[in-house]
Amino acid sequence: MIDGERRVLVDLSDALTPAQWDAQSLCTAWRVRDVISHVIDGSVLSGGQMMLLLTKHGFRVGSMLEKEAIKGGNKSTDELRDRMRGTIGRRSKPPGAKPADLLLDYVVHQQDIRRPLGVTREVPADHVRGALDKITLVRNGFLPGKSRAAGLHLHATDMEWERGEGPEVAGSGEAILMVLAGRGAALAELSGPGVDTLRARIGA
């Protein structure tokens, strides 16, 4: 599934215009090129390289991720395309990460690119389901999906997936995933009495 996401992202990067490479993504601090740089780093950096970068950035993980993505994003589009293509088939991952973390990262960040550009894609249901299963188990400062989902009944209307008890939040699996990842742009695609609670939790 991860390699499938990589291949689709490679195809997308091959089709991007210069203006699209520099367009704003759903990630506030990043252009499209920075998002692509970020997912590349998550697939190629070794544990030792990550530790060196953490040391360089004073062990501020958020700052490290943001600044290194922008630094890498300033490379030429040809180099970014080549580096993205080179991730296909790799089995390395960041220290402490599991394959499901990479799948979640790829699915969400690819939509971070596609949604603002209006380049739609039907994400395979098993990819969305795997990312949803992971994000609703995650409780951390960078992606507090579990806390956002607490006390709500999440119901994907386009696939077999639901989670939790409480006021319902219904919509496509992809829209639920994106909102749990903090992307308020997908809120309008959700319905149900739990939507206002979810909106408050992501600060939208």
Structural class: mainly alpha
Mean pLDDT: 93
Tally of individual helices? 11
Radius of gyration: 17 Å
| Domain tally | 2
Low-confidence region ranges? none
Outline the biggest β-sheet: 3 strands, mixed
Q: Helicity range of the residues?
A: 55-70%
State the end-to-end CA separation.
Answer: 31 Å
Placed side by side, the strands forming the largest sheet appear as 2-1-3
Number of β-strand runs: 3
- Strand portion: 5-15%
Gross morphology is globular
Order of helices and strands: HHHHHHHHHEEEHH
Structure description:
There is one protein chain. By secondary structure, this protein is mainly alpha-helical. It folds into 2 domains: 2-117, no CATH class; 125-202, 2-Layer Sandwich (Nonspecific Lipid-transfer Protein, Chain A). Helices cover 56% and strands 5% of the residues. The chain is built from 11 helices and 3 strands. It has helices at 2-15, 18-21, 32-44, 47-56, 61-73, 77-85, 99-117, 125-135, 145-149, 173-180, 195-202, and strands spanning 153-156, 161-163, 168-171. A 3-stranded mixed beta sheet has the order 2-1-3. Helix 3 crosses helix 5 and helix 8 (125-135) runs parallel beside helix 10. The chain is globular, with a radius of gyration of 17 Å. The mean pLDDT is 93.
